Amino acid sequence: MNSLKLSPTQARRLTLTCQGLHKRNAYGSGEAAVLNCVENLGYVQVDTISVINRAHHHTLWTRVPTFHENELDTLQRERKVFEYWAHAAAYLPMRDFRFSLPYMNAIAGGQKHWRSPDKKTMASVIRHIRAEGPAMARDFEDSGNTKPHFWGGKKPAKLALEQLFIEGELMISRRAGFQKVFDLTERVLPNGLDTSTPTNEEFLRYLIDRTIRSQGIATEAEIRYLRKGLKADLACQIQQMLSDGEIIPVQIDGKPNTYYSYSDIIETGITTRIAKNTHLLSPFDNLVIQRKRVLDLFEFDYQIECYVPEAKRKHGYFCLPILFGDAIVGRLDPKADRARSTLLIRNLVIENKVTQTDAFASKLARTIKSLAAFNDCENIDIERCNDKRLAKALSRLVA
């Protein structure tokens, strides 16, 4: 089958349209918009870093500007979204619950996740929750036998809760602040939900469909991102879908990779106008989480540096990629100083040439002010910028 040819610009437009970043308010407002966003993206990654608002809230706010975290909490309590493991901890649409079962079953069957389970403690935790109702880790006494763990020491009951969660025996019923409240899975799942375990073919087709519909185009490696043991089966499934005419191969001018997509998505995506807005993306945003893809499609070499020793950081602890129109033009390192109600811009680096400098400054200032408000900050302090003209304009615009 001959591949469809796309220019790099068309490929970026397609991706941004499928990601809901082609205009400022692609999903509307309210809980329905948040649910639509989660369902369209397929998952929203959860992360604990709180130098600014956490990643899952930030990713949703980027696409739903009126977003408030209580809307996500409500969707979880209403059983319209749930938390589990995608390539990392994430919120997922409840409609997709059954596609988490293969991983749950594998872990329950002995495949290791992060740790070896303590069956005795797990049984005790299950008995407690079955009898007493939903519980948090702090509801269990610490036996004092805390062992080192990937993220540091954790008490046995907390490790047991997390193991039972990843095995599918428990689900996160809701959150109290950022603390997980666990309950039995059968008490959390809504009535009538399809909980049948998908066949291998169903699961592979789900991964392919979810990735293409959320990203527009995707390579085989991007579809199986951070999922081990799928390479051979996924390659066969892709070839079958190509032979059946369900998906089409796509080549981007000047790029060696073969991508896959649907004809209808291509037709819509490459003709959609991309508004000249700015977005400050979370480091865990669905658009940029696969760093090689970002480099291939946007020619932007991105690395989050919070895991890099401070002396070796080039740009800052928690830099946010700056999307302007269909290009990623730089990065911004923020910190919400909540005690002073001030959003600190510790470093602002513009790396790709911006032709519409006045429009860019105006749009970026608006987005920085929105980010400050989203983080309950009234003031903005720009400490460092590699573009003196832009720094001067921004200081005036955000004052």
Could you explain how this protein is built, in words?
With 399 residues, the chain is α+β, with helices and mostly antiparallel strands. The chain is built from 15 helices and 13 strands. The chain is 39% helix and 17% strand. It is globular and about 65 Å long. Strands 9-10-11-12-13 form a 5-stranded mixed sheet, covered by helices on one side. The protein has a 3-stranded mixed sheet with strand order 1-7-8. A 3-stranded antiparallel sheet has the order 2-4-3. The model is unreliable at 145-153 (pLDDT under 50). α14 (357-374) crosses α15 (388-398).
Mean pLDDT: 93
**Helical proportion, percent range:** 25-40%
Report how far apart the termini are.
57 Å
Instruction: Tell me the overall shape.
Output: globular
Main sheet? 5 strands, mixed
Instruction: Give the strand tally.
Output: 13
Look at the helices and sheets and give the structural class.
Answer: alpha+beta
The gyration radius over C-alpha positions equals: 22 Å
Beta-sheet strand percentage? 15-25%
Count of DSSP H/I helices: 15
Low-confidence stretches: 145-153
Lateral strand order in the biggest sheet: 9-10-11-12-13
Q: What is the N-to-C succession of helices and strands?
A: EHHEHHEEHHHEEHHHHEEHEHEEEHEH
